[in-house]
Amino acid sequence: MKILQIGCGSMGTPVLENCLKFYKEVTLIEKIEIKKDGVKCFNDFKQIANIDFDIVIIAVKPQHFGDIADEIAKICNENTIVVSIMAGINAAYLAKKITKTSKFIRVMPNLGMMLESGGINAIYDGVQTDFSKEFVENIFGGVNECIYVDIDKFVDTFTPITGCGIAYFLLLAKIMFDRLYLTQGNDKLVRKLMQNAVDLSEKMSFDEAISRIASKAGVTEAALKVMKPIMENGVTEGINSAMERLNEISKDLCK
């Protein structure tokens, strides 16, 4: 099978590494040469103009897609499966720019995939053949959780949560660290608290875990009464803001 990957940044790198676990060779288009066994790296589409690829993975930033869309269209044929991990670029726009094929798969991966700790990948498979499913599971499955959606636009609804969610938890941790730093100066305390929270959540539901810690009329309950409405409103408004921004980006890019 002939695979082409375009781009090898923070998310493209783990995609490439997963490809090499299952397939002997991957052709890569990247400005900076990547020297890795099994990778044939080029910096110009003209160098691969005569190759028929079975899979084309687009792993560039969405704002750069417009600059290379015509080049991608030239190397595709009616049998090419196009896999995009670009946020905000919907399948309809991909089909508009890459007209030779109608086979598109969109994946919204998150940072967990890059860390090899188990990511959460929202996937729209517009091909739905045994071949496409096997490829998707090989590259984006494994230790990762794959959530399949039937409608392309649903991929974008996961972005503010699965794509951005890790940053929300880290922000809370940083706020706690900044507060503890005034008296302790030790970030290990916050990191340990984060690990304790993860360990506890794996053993019981969130509500049960909170009730175990927050005794009635106690110190924790007093804090939670103040924090809960603030955090609920803040998280909701933040996710809504992220979704609005994603819609703006999508509208701007998919003209």
Automatic annotation (TrEMBL):
Domain (Pyrroline-5-carboxylate reductase dimerisation) ranges: 155-248
InterPro entries reported in the protein's UniProt record: 6-PGluconate_DH-like_C_sf, NAD(P)-bd_dom_sf, P5C_Rdtase_cat_N, P5CR_dimer
Any single GO BP term: L-proline biosynthetic process
Keyword Glycoprotein: no
Gene3D superfamilies registered for this protein in UniProt: NAD(P)-binding Rossmann-like Domain, ProC C-terminal domain-like
The keyword DNA-binding is assigned to this record: no
Record domain Pyrroline-5-carboxylate reductase catalytic N-terminal: where: 6-88
Keyword tags: Oxidoreductase
Residues of the signal peptide: none
GO MF entries: pyrroline-5-carboxylate reductase activity
Family of this protein: Belongs to the pyrroline-5-carboxylate reductase family.
The protein's name: Pyrroline-5-carboxylate reductase
The species this protein was found in: Candidatus Deianiraea vastatrix
